[in-house]
Amino acid sequence: MLMIVLMLAVSTADASIEFRGQIPDVARQLIARYREAEPDRYLDNLFRFQIAAGRYADARQSLAALQALRKSSVSTLPYEVYAAAKARQVREVAPFPEAFAQEFRNIVGALDDRTAAYEARWAFGTPLPVLEKDLRIALEEQRGKTSLAMSDAVALVRKFLGAQVYRELAPLIDLLMEEDDGRRYTVERDILVTTPDGGHVCALVVRPRAGASRLPALLNFTIYSGDRLPLSEARRSASHGYAGVEGFTRGKACSPDQPWPAERDGADAAAVVDWISAQPWSDGRVGMYGGSYEGFTQWAAAKHMPKALKALMPSVTFAPGIDFPMDGNIFMNYAYPWPFYTTNEKGLDDATYSDAPRWDRLNRDWYVSGRPYRELERIDGVPNPIFKRWTEHPLYDAYWRAMIPYRGDFARIDIPVLTTTGYYDGGQIGALYYFREHHRYNPKAEHYLVIGPYDHIGGQRGTVSPLGRAQNVLRNYTLDAVAHIDIGTLRYQWFDYVFRGGSRPPLLEDKVNYQVMGANVWNHAPSLSAMHDGTLRFHLTGAREGPRYRLSPRKPASPAFVGQTVDLADRSDADRMSRGEIFDQAQDDWPVTGIAPGIGNAIEFVSDPFPAPIEVSGLFAGRLDVTANKKDFDFSVTLFELTPAGQYMQLSYYWSRASHVGDRSHRRLLTPGKRVVLPFESGRLTSRRFEADSRLVVVIGVIKQPTEQINYGTGKDVGDESVADAGDPLQIRWYSSSVIDVPVRR
């Protein structure tokens, strides 16, 4: 009967609801008057109205109908338990905590381990302060009103109920979750593992109570202790039949030592792998997984290749000295607060790290003052010895190389590896560095790459939430339908393939698996170079097209150049803001934060329209023929599609210190006034199907902004330079013999 009513329902979006300040009364009116033709939306609202109005039995019926429609109960699980508990409270005149505990055991206890371990905990994990803030804002918006539009009434009841439910369950849920864990798993906390050099590493182990007595282990080795995620990840691995192990950087969690990022993690992670293999519950095989810093620790451990280490799954992987804290040998200010965040406490110092006014002020004060980069900590007023040590190594030298595999080290890594990252992951260059070096030194390596339109978070988690909701838009770009993936699900497909003889994950058709933006397809290739079957070469010409210059597929008949002047002492741009979008209508206020470096001091080159759609896939490269009046400068090259509608879609970028182009380890200063050719290849992939009549845009910029180190061009260590070294404005000539090579698949 309910479904018949829904099919006959008509929208009442324009109706109004009487409002006397009592939200349960609003809910009762909505039950009588709300209509919605779409069944899922109708039921998702109806059960909330019914709970808010105290009609718990009706709410449970509506929830059951919604769950049958969705074929899942997880997203509404807290409301299901709450409604059942309220009904029990009324029926048995029982205290709510007692009623809630009983219904939690009945409902959550009936879930399978995988659902209970991950999706259910996400459902119960919505932060109460967020819900209460949303409710306060909604109430303030309706202050003084005597009637509400139907849509406003619906939104108000939803926010009211969310805050009410999570407020009542918040004091109860942790103990009930722990009780549920105890029924399903053996959880061992604060295990101290002694390393060969006498250090101490803290570990956490979660094992399923049922199943084999000896299991393969999945290890996540992380510096991010102090929140619930490590336990969540270990529990999730246990729910898939593995021993879930979390190891923490020396000095973190229960380790009594002094924390220091990166430098010891490789040997310490290898020691934890050895320790795992010696445990009575271990079958002698260990896989590692995790993203960002946790991707780095996998490669750091693999440098030592402990015998029990059998597989890796690194995501959006940090590569010390390559993509963080410097990229192209240019130090980045966003790295400055990170040592405080990770080493001030045994857990994480969220308050310091999230103090945006402090870090914005530091960037601006440093930039406006013109003081040397090495004085950041003096300007901030708090010592930062870790960042200081980093800046003492501006070359990719032995300090950085000792942390991860280097050259021939990759040849010894003969275990399966799956790397995931995203086109818009700021650390993509690190992930690709490991992928390329592994295949270079071990051509037979079983190493796969999955890459698509993801950022740093999406590249390690995917676009589908634990509750099944898809993130459809990334920084103003609407993802293709096929781009949606759950990398957590891929993780266990991968390790089941390695450890249990399962099928190789369907997405891994070849070594390189990439989503073609705009084409709504995944393509697969045996190598990065095989992503394309041709190259379009464009010359930077001096021919004008309004404010732009022209890109030409033909070398100009006569030599020419485009001149650029940048006053490195100018600080009038100190308050320039960026929007952080992938799609943009103009390029006048770039940079795009987190995607590409500053290109405000930039020159734009544009091609003719492409007469037909064309796919750009792979790593772009170039050869810049330049003269400069200084010994060095920092620059960026950024690629865009300019659509027929006038939108710029950012594709990929390269940035570097001119003296380090092609060589992170050695600095080759320029001779002022002398032409030099700077050949480069981007370390960041893209794949995009251009529309017909789109154009390619290449933007070349000099990096000078408050968020990166400033190279004044004297040839001294850039960390020691100040605005007093700026001298005459930087003058560059970009000659028309300069080329940009764009990889295409026809």
Keywords:
alpha+beta; 10-stranded mixed sheet; disordered N terminus
Write structural notes for this entry:
The chain has 746 residues and is of the alpha+beta class. It is 32% helix and 24% strand. It has 21 helices and 30 strands. The strands form 5 sheets. Strands 17, 18, 19, 20, 21, 22, 23, 24, 25, 26, 27, 28, 29 and 30 form a 14-stranded mixed beta sheet that branches. The longest helix has 35 residues, at 150-184. The two termini are 55 Å apart. The relative contact order is 0.08. The model is unreliable at 1-13 and 585-599 (pLDDT under 50).
Summarize the structure.
The protein is of the alpha+beta class. It contains 21 helices and 30 strands.
| Gyration radius over CA | 28 Å
What oligomeric assembly is this protein in? Answer: single chain
Distance between the termini: 55 Å
Described by the principal axes of the CA atoms, the overall outline is globular
Kindly estimate the percentage of residues that lie in beta strands according to DSSP.
15-25%
Low-confidence stretches: 1-13, 585-599
DSSP summary: helix tally: 21
Helix and strand arrangement:
Blueprint: H1 2-8, E1 16-18, H2 23-33, H3 39-52, H4 56-70, H5 77-92, H6 96-107, H7 113-124, H8 128-141, E2 147-149, H9 150-184, E3 185-194, E4 200-208, E5 215-222, H10 229-239, E6 243-248, H11 265-277, E7 282-291, H12 293-302, E8 309-315, E9 326-327, E10 330-331, H13 338-343, H14 350-353, H15 356-369, H16 376-380, H17 385-391, H18 398-401, E11 417-422, H19 428-441, E12 447-452, H20 458-461, E13 473-474, E14 477-478, H21 487-500, E15 512-516, E16 521-525, E17 534-545, E18 548-552, E19 561-566, E20 583-584, E21 601-606, E22 614-618, E23 621-628, E24 634-642, E25 648-657, E26 676-681, E27 686-690, E28 695-702, E29 730-735, E30 739-745
Parallel strand pairs: 5-6, 5-7, 7-8, 8-11, 11-12, 12-15, 18-21
Antiparallel strand pairs: 1-2, 3-4, 4-6, 9-10, 13-14, 15-16, 17-18, 17-30, 19-29, 20-25, 21-28, 22-27, 22-30, 23-26, 23-29, 23-30, 24-25, 24-28
Helix pairs in contact: 2-3, 2-9, 3-4, 3-9, 4-5, 5-6, 6-9, 7-9, 7-10, 8-9, 11-12
